[in-house]
Design goal:
Blueprint (H helix, E strand, L loop, with lengths): L16 H7 L6 H14 L10 E2 L3 H7 L4 E2 L4 H5 L4
Antiparallel strand pairs: 1-2
Helix pairs in contact: 1-3
């Protein structure tokens, strides 16, 4: 039996102004936000070259993640605060 996707997780959410500056205008579901965040991170070279698991935010991304380097596994916590 195939697993059914969590409908609540796929629900389109309102995107804050700061997050919209990075991923575009919402509303959009969380998986789409994550996908667009990674496009932005890679396009702008925001991964630490010595440790690709670490994200080094620029000014736009810093408004969402904070100004310091952050582990990619922990970056979604501050991002989800920008979705409502």
């Amino acid at each position: 039996m195939a697993k059914k996707a969590n409908a609540k997780f796929m629900e389109a959410k309102k995107v804050s102004e700061d997050l919209a500056a990075v991923v575009g205008k919402g509303p959009m579901p969380a998986p789409e936000v994550v996908k667009k965040l990674w496009v932005y991170i890679k396009k702008n070279g925001l991964q630490n070259p010595k440790n690709k698991r670490m994200i080094v935010p620029d000014d736009k991304l810093g408004k969402i993640l904070g100004k310091k380097e952050i582990n990619m596994m922990k970056m979604m916590t501050p991002v989800f605060k920008h979705l409502s």
